[in-house]
Amino acid sequence: MKQSRILTWLIFFISLSVIAVDAEQIQTPKTTLLKSRTIPIKPNQIEFSADAQVERVIIKFKDSYKVRIRQNKIISLKGLSVLTADKFLKPYIDISLRRLFKTNSEHNLSRQKEIFQYRSLTELADLNSYFTIEIQSLPEAIQIVNKLNSLESVEIAYIEPSPVPAVDIAPPTPDYNASQLYLNPAPVGIDALYAHTVPGGDGTGITIVDIEGNWQRTHEDLDKAATGFLVGDVINDQSWLDHGTAVIGVLIGSDNGYGITGISPGADLGMVSINTMSTAEAIYAAVDSLDVGDIILIELQAPGPRFNFAARQDQKGYICMEYWQANYDAIKYAWAKGIIVVEAAGNGEENLDDPLYGSLFDTNYRNSHALLVGA
User: Fold this and answer.
1) Beta carbons of 368 and 322 less than 8 angstroms apart
2) What pLDDT does 178 receive?
3) Residue/partner pairs of 191-196 with CB below 8 Å, 24 or more apart
4) Mean pLDDT across the stretch 62-68?
5) Going edge to edge, which strands form the sheet with 371-373?
6) Pairing of strands 73-76, 207-212
7) Res 16 pLDDT > 50
8) Element spanning 83, H or E
9) Which listed CATH number (1.10.3720.10, 3.90.1150.10, 3.40.50.200, 3.40.50.880) goes with 181-373?
10) Model-level pTM?
11) How far apart are CA 269 and CA 209, in angstroms?
12) What span, in angstroms and rounded, lies between the C-alpha atoms of 66 and 125?
């Protein structure tokens, strides 16, 4: 009997050893197979037009430092020195410095990072290492960014211009409700009318999230807007309302015999407003609300470096949102989860292969996997 118990315990401990070895053998290849993420290049000094409209500074500490805020202090969970950063940012900690991706807990962000990395075999940024300072003074913002970019612990810091809807430029567009040529076969349209005849071709079974500022959710031709989910507070501005309503009309306008019919009238709809969130937070809020095969549409643009990020009536130089690192990293999370991201290229008439943009739009250097759409 005693020998039997000894044998039982021996088998138990051997099985534990086998499990431990197997787990180690499984984990090691996954780690080594991860495609490394591209580390952004920090500018020595930044230049911004006096006409730039700014809301916030974005700060990304190096992942290896595991920087967090604890008891109103900037600390490194790895025990590395961040004293200079803590001292410099001290005046902002009690006022406006916060985690950028505040809509999710540190634990959930870390857990999702591991899940999405192994699903995509691609190293992802530690979103817990992103912070933001809400600020309205451009000279102060420039001073903050230039100082932070000089610190070893900071991966990159930058000013994010205020995003704007990709609105039409005057004169106003005529009413084309009876002439949706884009639903027709190529080369005139995208052949959505044929797609509607194929099971699932009208979007049934998927959810599309539109990221911008406001929508007329009680419109008589937008039934899916009335039942769709909304994240964030809308922007009380007519241009945001008009643009958002037009976009979701093109997407999910009801197939009801009047008004217009959307490209995907069978799809469900979600809306995420950037009113009280950064673009990166809005993208991640959409990621958290969706599943594999769903779609995120980023209907935003912002002034780019062509005119030193100046706000312009003609929108020249305006570009897509993935130019800014936090937005890019949030889009990469969407891709890693299996979500399709469609991104407006912007109305700036820009060649994204121009040396002005370095390698940021070279997919051999970094690739968000978003569908970047121009017209």
Assistant:
1) yes
2) 63
3) 192/263, 192/264, 196/255, 196/265
4) 98
5) 229-231, 268-273, 207-212, 295-298, 340-344, 371-373
6) unpaired
7) no
8) helix 83-93
9) 3.40.50.200
10) 0.83
11) 6
12) 11
